[in-house]
Specification:
Elements lengths: L19 H12 L4 E5 L8 E7 L2 E8 L2 E6 L14 E3 L10 E2 L5 E2 L22 E5 L2 E5 L7 H5 L2 H10 L1 E12 L3 H8 L5 H4 L16 E2 L7 E6 L5 H11 L12 E7 L3 E6 L4 E10 L2 E11 H4 L2 H37 L15 H14 L2
Antiparallel strand pairs: 1-9, 2-3, 2-5, 3-4, 6-7, 8-9, 10-16, 11-12, 12-13, 13-14, 14-15, 15-16
Length: 376
């Protein structure tokens, strides 16, 4: 059944998927204006460990400074050199150009002086541009907007779920990166419905879902975040073998949906998914331009499995058979589909509007949240 026009989102205009002006507005309103999932605390175990990521057009350095995670725009206020030039590593907050160094608050220390600050002629003590930093378990979020709510308020009930999932991850099974020639909203639209699973994922996802498609179970979340579970059918031999093996090692985590594909969209750039808590997949989306998005995927096994060396080899072998294709092949199938949608949007007659069916209700919700934030 098609959702009544009065009940669905204001359609995102086709130009919003191409327009450089809209993309610049998104950077200000959304990527810099709300909490952005930038990485993982487990990647920064030691003092001065750092990594670099882009948020919009800004390159952000995220660094462990004496046990505290800090984030700054990766540019020196002196002559505008990058502070760090490698994507990750371990070094102090020192600009390689003229050796200005910076303390945990981003305040400059002039070379040859013991105290923070620069000579009087400089007009005071320059600072790095600081980002707000907060964590939900192992996931690091940053925000450039001083008026944004706290991360706890922004995520609501999703924060506890993210903490439990991310802190329960142990052995990192696989990771990969790719680039999708499509607008980030096209990709998010695609992640929020299963209607396409029959046609786009006939050998990967379709065998795991019921026909006809069961209704998605909405889970507690507050806009603009979206949390849901899709019931899966029984009978897959490899999944049953994994469940039996995992069952000897794990108890069902509290608050985790079983016999389902559970999915959380942490607006605007992170999705987390799992099937029966046997692996946890984190998808980070980095909008690069109106028609280009980078995807970073990391897949972990639960920590209880990682700690059991006698079982991990067997589990990894079954993962290679079942879950690796499930995760990696689906990502490639979605890439092809999203690029086809991006291509089609260029030729869409202006008078056409999207016709959402009930199975696409979460896409409608995302688009409503997007329009609301862009107009705020």
């Amino acid at each position: 059944m098609i959702i009544d026009k009065r009940e669905r989102a204001l359609d995102i205009h086709e130009l919003d998927y191409f327009s450089p002006e809209i993309f610049e507005k998104e950077i200000t309103k959304i990527f810099h204006g709300s909490w952005y999932a930038i990485g993982f605390a487990s990647d920064l175990p030691n003092h001065n460990d750092f990594f670099l990521e882009h948020v919009g057009h800004k390159e952000v350095l995220v660094q462990n400074v004496n046990g505290e995670i800090r984030a700054f725009t990766n540019v020196c206020p002196h002559r505008f050199s990058a502070i760090h030039t490698e994507p990750r590593g371990n070094r102090a907050l020192v600009c390689p150009y003229h050796l200005w160094s910076f303390n945990a608050e981003g305040v400059a220390r002039f070379p040859g002086t013991a105290d923070a600050g620069c000579p009087p002629s400089s007009g005071g003590s320059p600072r790095l541009e600081a980002w707000r930093v907060a964590t939900a378990g192992n996931v690091i979020y940053v925000c450039l907007n001083p008026s944004a709510p706290s991360l706890e308020d922004y995520l609501g009930p999703s924060r506890q779920w993210i903490e439990e999932i991310s802190l329960g991850c142990g052995y990192e099974f696989k990771s990969f990166q790719s680039e999708i020639q499509a607008n980030w909203k096209v990709i998010i639209n695609n992640t929020l419905e299963f209607y396409h699973a029959y046609s786009v994922h006939p050998q990967t996802f379709r065998p795991l879902i019921n026909a006809p498609l069961q209704k998605i179970k909405a889970l507690p979340s507050i806009p603009p975040n979206i949390h849901y579970a899709m019931p899966l059918k029984e009978g897959d031999a490899t999944m049953a073998r994994l469940d039996k093996l995992f069952g000897r090692l794990l108890k069902q985590p509290a608050g985790i949906e079983m016999d389902a594909y559970e999915h959380l969209y942490s607006f605007p750039n992170l999705t987390i998914g799992h099937v029966n808590a046997r692996s946890f997949s984190f998808f980070q989306y980095e909008p690069v331009s109106p028609e280009r998005t980078k995807l970073k995927v990391r897949v972990w096994m639960p920590s209880a499995v990682a700690e059991n060396s006698s079982s991990i080899k067997v589990i990894c072998e079954d993962f290679e058979v079942k879950l690796r294709p499930f995760i990696f092949d689906i990502a490639e199938e979605d890439r092809v589909t999203c690029e086809a949608v991006q291509r089609g949007l260029k030729s869409k007659p202006k008078q056409w509007a999207s016709r959402f069916i009930e199975d696409e209700a979460l896409v409608v919700r995302f688009q409503k949240d997007y329009v609301r934030l862009m107009n705020s």
